[in-house]
Amino acid sequence: MALTQARTMPGTLELLPPDQIAFQRMLDTVRRNFESFGFLPVETPVMEFTDVLLTKQGGETERQVYFVQSTGALEKPAEGLPELALRFDLTVPLARYVAEHEHDLNFPFRRYQIQRVYRGERAQRGRFREFYQCDIDVIGKDQLSIRYDAEIPAVIYSVFRDLAIGPFTIWLNNRKLMRGFFESVGIADPERQAHALREVDKLDKRGAEYVRDTLAGEGFGLSADAASRILDFVQIRSHGHADALARLDALGVGNATLAEGVAELKQTLELVRAFGVPETHYAINLSIARGLDYYTGTVYETTLNEHPQIGSICSGGRYDNLASNYTKSKLPGVGISIGATRLFWQLREAKLLGGAASTVQVLVAQMDETLLPACLEIAAQLRGAGIATEVVMESGKLGKQFKYADRAGIRFVAVLGPDEIAKGTVTVKDMRKQDQVEISQAELAGALRAQLTQETPA
Amino acid sequence: MALTQARTMPGTLELLPPDQIAFQRMLDTVRRNFESFGFLPVETPVMEFTDVLLTKQGGETERQVYFVQSTGALEKPAEGLPELALRFDLTVPLARYVAEHEHDLNFPFRRYQIQRVYRGERAQRGRFREFYQCDIDVIGKDQLSIRYDAEIPAVIYSVFRDLAIGPFTIWLNNRKLMRGFFESVGIADPERQAHALREVDKLDKRGAEYVRDTLAGEGFGLSADAASRILDFVQIRSHGHADALARLDALGVGNATLAEGVAELKQTLELVRAFGVPETHYAINLSIARGLDYYTGTVYETTLNEHPQIGSICSGGRYDNLASNYTKSKLPGVGISIGATRLFWQLREAKLLGGAASTVQVLVAQMDETLLPACLEIAAQLRGAGIATEVVMESGKLGKQFKYADRAGIRFVAVLGPDEIAKGTVTVKDMRKQDQVEISQAELAGALRAQLTQETPA
Predict the structure, then answer these.
(1) The whole model's pTM is what?
(2) Could you tell me where the DSSP H helices lie in A385-440?
(3) B325–A1: do the CB atoms touch at under 8 Å?
(4) Amino acid A342: pLDDT
């Protein structure tokens, strides 16, 4: 029979078990922290009705959408777009979910969602067509206190502290502050503001001089002074809490919107500190815009101090109205998203991921098949104590079994020979320390539990 | 602006947070048990290339497949089937995964996979187009000891013991035993065996008499005696370990295949007992066939003793060769699948699911916004002790905050008023017991931790 070549679509990240374990631990850490702050789990179907999904998106999004058809539908002549499509983020499904279940939810509604999303991107290194997003949002009904804006950095801090991938900074800005400032230098039109922001976005890549020249150039037509003031403004970064407040005060009160933005950002910073986020881990960065239409207040980005090239690993912000396409209710909210698949891939590329231990903690070796029942009993004991235990079911050379444990990253190998069984003991080899002890069967689970708990990864 | 109606595709199970928490706990319990037996995590992309996915399936499968196209592909004239399709189970992706990564895997390869699959079913109550499968498989290279067949019921037992959904029975059979027996009554042709099995499958619905008459009728043409013997055979069920062995011995040795099946099943039963599965929880059931082409040895089903109408909640078996479509390597294996979405739905319908506690364990109430920093400090302390804690960020009536906790299923409400802050205490209300204690801030986390651990659900 002719074989079909086993292969996967480019743009997906399919992992071998050791990497999958490391990735799963990352997702578990994210989830544990989301839950620890009182966010509730939500999962939505991967498919949405096309008209629901593409309510307001323009052509760009539509070109990246995957459409879904059952075989029956394929046979019908196509009229317009197919009925179903895969979600491209978790925000549109959240909006649909909240609108659909509005009367069954408690507000403020705090949800987390950790699922995959799909984008028909061109295949390219580091670009994914299927990737996990880990989102939290707090949604208010009619209104939502700005205090929630300060909780978000507290969650971000605790997630990345526990992921232990090096020092990081949570950058804060406020769209009102930005909008007010642009107005104060004479850019009042939202389209022109958007244009200016797109230029400012090139700051990192093209440098300050390039951006200043563009803004003061013929296409844009600002005065050299206004262009310089914009550049000074967007390059403001703080170092420490007091510095952040001082830099905001130094902006002065150009207009009401600017003043409101400054007040909101100051209040947020004060509360971020009250949440216990160390001031080494948050700062203001007045260049952060995060999309041009969606966010209306606080915006966030997060970067790894030692790996700025990775870019923002967690972003989001405050929006005025989540679900205006589906409901007349006003649903303001604030939230963030971590692109876990891309983050994992980047950390792996940057060699920032240590080798994860196997999910299997003990391998019970087998010397002789007549001893198998005794091995199974020991294994049941260990599992009862919460220790993940694999039993070698076929007898074979002990050396080969040790090698298997070593390659698989299994920490302990338990050996029960006739001697051990006679004495009621087990010989345990610690594959990491390469030492070996004989221990009574009654004490085995407790002893291993103690050693494993000592160094459970965060 | 015209609103789009927020709605989801029929055949998906989108849950409100309390149910989602209960469902998530179910998946967590399944995963913890899979890991406890040393199975390694694997995730595969939701899309597969159509030619890979549909290698050998017939028309039935194809009619149920969802095909996927990006917008670009939609614009091209359709030629044959679209390039991509959503997986309809986790077995084909496993075969593709093992063939693709064969040289990077350790054999026997023990993997678990908990992901959603997609079938274009007709919309119907209790039928899902998107549902979770929780699979484990052990895959050998060239050969795989039959001992692994005994490990599977041990995993099934520990999963459903921990799910605590009532007494259950793991039913075992062996296709060789079945095949040998059919040969011994004169049905040697595999097609005729398949036909007879389809009739036998109607046993529960149509009754023994109907099946016997069909087998002895004109369409099938067995002698009345042969039909009766088949009926006697497939109605064999055991009660207890010794009874199972005795019933197998009583079958006699009709032919070599039957003898082999009996020997395998006896060996499996002995080892299932050695794995510590109580004999109240496993039995032989010689009517179980589980599909007609795929399985070649041991087969499993699991039913809830008090809810037989739910049918099998966990099924699987032994197969000779996993991935013959993709590789010349011989890859025998054994595995099972739990259809978690359907199971959850059925348990809910049968009112077998207790109300799950919220993932949020403590709500820190707010009496006065000036006290918020103190509340945040207490919350950080609790989170540090692994207690999921939500803080009310807006001051409001205390009664309303208690009501919120009650509706959301949050067990404890912590109140910090000016008195408490002066004394360094917190007042804690246990919403379940409806009692209230004042406790020092230093002891709070420990005290709550102790109460919460006492009754952590399995």
Answers:
(1) 0.95
(2) 398-408, 418-423
(3) yes
(4) 95
ipTM of the complex model? 0.94
What is the signed CA dihedral for B442, B444, B447, B451, rounded to 10 degrees? -160
d(CA B420, CA B256): 80
Average pLDDT value for chain A: 92
Q: How far is B420 from chain A (nearest CA, A)?
A: 19
The answer to whether the CB atoms of B70 and A52 lie below 8 A apart is no
Q: Do residues B191 and B204 make contact, with C-beta atoms less than 8 angstroms apart?
A: no
Which candidate from B3, B41, B147 shows the least CB-CB separation from A393?
B147
Q: Tell me the residues of chain A between 33 and 72 that have a Cβ less than 8 Å away from chain B.
A: 35-38, 40-49, 51-52, 55, 62-72
Q: What angle do CA B358, B361, B365 make, to 5 degrees?
A: 110
B342 CB within 8 Å of a chain A CB: no
Q: Is the pLDDT of residue B458 over 50?
A: no
How confident is the model at residue A35, as a pLDDT? 97
Please confirm whether the linkage preceding A108 is cis (ω < 30° from 0): yes
Backbone angles phi, psi at B196, to 5 degrees: -60, -40
73-92 in A: which are within 8 Å (CB) of B? 74, 78, 81-82, 84, 86
Does residue B77 have a pLDDT over 70? Answer: no
**Mean pLDDT of the residues in chain B:** 92
pLDDT 10s digits, B117-131: 999 988 788 899 999
Query: Cβ of B9 and A49 within 8 Å?
Result: yes
Burial of A172 (0-12, 13-18, 19+ CB in 10 A): buried
What distance in Å separates the CA atoms of residue B347 and residue B164, rounded to the nearest whole number? 11
- Dist CA A56 CA B68 (whole Å): 22
Sorted by where each starts, the structural domains of chain A and their CATH numbers stand as 167-305 (3.30.930.10), 362-454 (3.40.50.800)
Query: Quick one: residue A335, left, alpha or beta (phi over 0 = left, psi -120 to 50 = alpha)?
Result: beta
- Region A430-452: mean pLDDT is 94
Lowest mean pLDDT among A15-24, A39-48, B247-256, B333-342: B247-256
In which band, very low, low, confident or very high, does the pLDDT at A290 lie, cut at 50, 70 and 90?
A: confident
Convert B406-424 to b/e letters by CB count within 10 Å (16 or more is b).
eebbbbbbbbbbeebbeee
- % of residues, chain B, pLDDT over 70: 95
